[in-house]
Every structure is written in structure tokens, then in C-alpha cells.
Amino acid sequence: MQGTSNLLRPGGTRSIKASLLSAFPAFQSPNFRSYFPGQVVSMVGTWIQMVAQGWLVLELTGSAFDVGLAAAASTLPTLFLSLIGGVIVDRYPRRTIILWTQSSSMVLAFILGIFALTGTVTMPIILVLSFLLGCVNAINVPALQAFLSEMVEREHLSSAIALNSAIYNGSRVIGPAIAGVLIAVAGTGAAFMLNGFSFFAVLLSLFMIKVGTRSPSPTESGHPVRAITDGLRYSWHHPLIRTIVIFIAVISIFGWSYVTMLPVVAKRSFNMDATGLGYLYGVSGIGSVIGTVLISMYSRRVDRLVFIAGGTILFALSLIGFTYTLSLPLALFFLFLCGFGLVAAVATMSATIQGTVEDRYRGRVMSLYMMVFMGFMPIGNLQVGWLSEQFGTGPAIRFGCLVTLFAAVVIIFYSRRVRSDYQRYREESKL
């Protein structure tokens, strides 16, 4: 009883607060505390739109390939524009960039909502708006990733990245659940409009954040092509960054693409409506949230290879299990493990890059990382959509899992060599 009473006293409350700050040190920053709730609201809206768009395309065309095509249209610009976005991020105030990109995303969400509500939406309209949103995200995502380093102290950066990933994945629990109900009650147009209004929260949080003014270095102020070349050269010669970028390419093409097929699986394998689809997304999101929490708490104590390779293997094996089961409870359990393993790997890779990159290259390196991660997704979306049409959704997803498993084994096999090369690189950089 005494332990319980201590928690009820003011000192006990402070102890709980201290424990939370110890587990999630990024919250020690007032800027991050302002950023966090606004980004949560905005990302919930983003997931609502993602689910609604996939469902709308499936209703319009009934084609699994078209579902993948619409998803590809929103990520394809990342492949071509991210490197330019990285130069912009390294040259101009990152908060200002994010304010403009978030405002643009809000306008695009409202436009899609109006088309859907008026019943004039078509597949070409969805593709064009998705492509424009992808152009905005090609600048927004690396800017947001780089901006984290301005909001928190360097020693708290891993925690901030994990919590930022928790925002993305936690919204996968709330957003799809809301989307499922909203689509059933009011239709996809209302879901798009709600996403548009959600951007007001993140815009307000950005106005509350106070950061210093960055002055670009002479290298950053040079010719854009030279700046891009310098960033690529730096990334290639950095052993850790090079290895992670190659590995994330495999995950982007052959692992992450399963998400775009969930509407097809929900409808054809489990006879689910939009609400049921929300459950599939949501349970995967719960696993992702738990994964990010563990990363924030144990990133300094556990070898990162455990999270990267181990998380990838857990993800691939669980996803294979998901494709074989027709039992809904078992399918939900496998999706939970998928979310846990995938986010453990991806968030750890992002934190590893952010923790080792020089700040003057941060925008360009993060743009390269996001270009590969998000820009290669269209390849994955198209290949999984095509394979699904030819051989079925299950075999298409399992093929990607096998490739991902092989890549994880290669990472484990070469991990000692990568560590040795990185140590040599650091020593040479000091000379």
C-alpha cells in the first residue's frame, strides 16, 4: 500500500513524470512537445485519406492493379524530386518549408473531397491529385525528418525519431478505424474533407515552435547539381548510410508494398467492408506503436542489428503466415507482428542515419533515404499489383517476403564487415 500511496503524492507524480522523460527524452524539448499533438492529428487525417482512397479506387474499378497504380502515383514523384528537395531543405528554413508543404497538402485534400462529394470523381482525377501530393511530399518528408534535429538535442534524436515513427504508426490504429466508420456512414468524400481540416492542427503547432535561424554553408549555397552530387558522394562513401540505403530499397519494393493490397485481402479473403479494412490497418498499427516505444526505450541498450535484421525477419515470416490463414483472429495476430517487426527495422535505420550524418548534409542524405524508401514504393506497388492479377494476392506478397528475408540474412552475414568499414571511415575522417 505504501508504494501505491507514494504514487498519489506530488513527489510520486514527479517520479512518474521523470520516468516518462527518461523513457522518452525527446519530450524534454518544449518544441517537440508542441510538435507532437499537431502531428498526431494531421497523421490521423492522412491515414484516413489513404484508406478512403484505396477503397474509392476499388469501388470505381474493382481492380487490384488500379489500387496499386493509385498508390504508385502518390509516391512516384519522390523518386525524381527528392534529391532536389534535399538541396532546398539544406538551404532554407525547414519550418518555413514545412508550413508551405502542409498547406499545399491541405488544399489537395479539400479538392479531392469536393470531387468525391459531388460524385464527379474519376480515376484520372485521383491519379493527378495523388501525383501532385507526391510532389509535395518529396519536399515535405526530408524537411520534416531534418527538422527533428532542430527541435531536440542530439542525444535525444533517436527518441524523437522513434516517437515521430510512433506518430505515423499510431495513427494507423486511429485513422483507419475512423475511416472505416466514416466511409460507411458518410462516404469517402467526408473522409477526404476531414483530412483537409486535420492540417490546421499541425500548422498551429509549427507556429508555436521556436528555433534559431540556420545559415547555409558555402557548399550548400553552390550550384544545385553540385550540391546533389556532393550529397550522393558523401552517402556512398559512408559505410553505414550506403548499407542502410540499399537495404531500405529492398524493403520498400518487396516488403512495404503489402499495405496497398490490404483492401483486396479484406474484400476477397475475409469478405470485409470498409470497417473491417480499418481493423486490419489498425492492428498492424498497434504492433508498430509498441515497436517504436521499445526503440525509444532501449535503443541505447540493444544492438541496432537486432532491431534491423531481427525486425525484418519477424515481419517477413509473420506476413507469410498472414497470407496462408483464413482465420481472422490469427490474421490479426500476424498483422500485429508485421507492424511490430517492420517499424522496429525502419525506425532504427532512420535513427542510425540521423545519428551519424553530418548536419550540413542532413537534408540531402535524408532526401536520398526517403527517395529510396518512398520513391521505390511505386515499383513495389506495381509489381505486387501485377503479380496479384497473374497469380493471386497471396503468392505475390509471399514472393516479396522471401526477397526481404534473403536481404536480412545478407545484412547479418556482412554486419561485422560494415562495422569495421565504418570504424575505419571515422578514423580517416578525423585526419
Write the layout of secondary structure elements.
Elements: H1 2-8, H2 10-23, H3 30-61, H4 64-91, H5 94-117, H6 123-151, H7 157-186, H8 188-208, H9 224-237, H10 239-255, H11 262-268, H12 274-298, H13 304-324, H14 328-356, H15 362-375, H16 377-391, H17 393-430
Helix pairs in contact: 1-2, 3-4, 3-6, 3-7, 3-8, 4-6, 4-15, 4-16, 5-6, 5-8, 6-15, 7-8, 7-12, 7-14, 10-14, 10-15, 10-16, 10-17, 11-12, 12-14, 13-14, 13-17, 16-17
GO molecular function: transmembrane transporter activity
Subcellular location: Cell membrane
Membrane topology: Multi-pass membrane protein
How would you describe the overall organization of this protein?
GO terms for molecular function: transmembrane transporter activity. Its main location: membrane. This is MFS transporter. The chain crosses the membrane at residues 40-58, 70-89, 190-209, 240-259, 279-298, 305-324, 330-353, 365-384, 396-414. This protein is an all-alpha fold. The chain has 2 domains: 29-209, MFS general substrate transporter like domains (Growth Hormone, Chain: A), CATH 1.20.1250.20; 222-430, Up-down Bundle (Growth Hormone, Chain: A), CATH 1.20.1250.20. The protein is built from 17 helices and no strands. It has helices at 2-8, 10-23, 30-61, 64-91, 94-117, 123-151, 157-186, 188-208, 224-237, 239-255, 262-268, 274-298, 304-324, 328-356, 362-375, 377-391, 393-430. α3 packs antiparallel against α6 (123-151), α13 (304-324) runs antiparallel to α14 (328-356) and α13 runs antiparallel to α17.
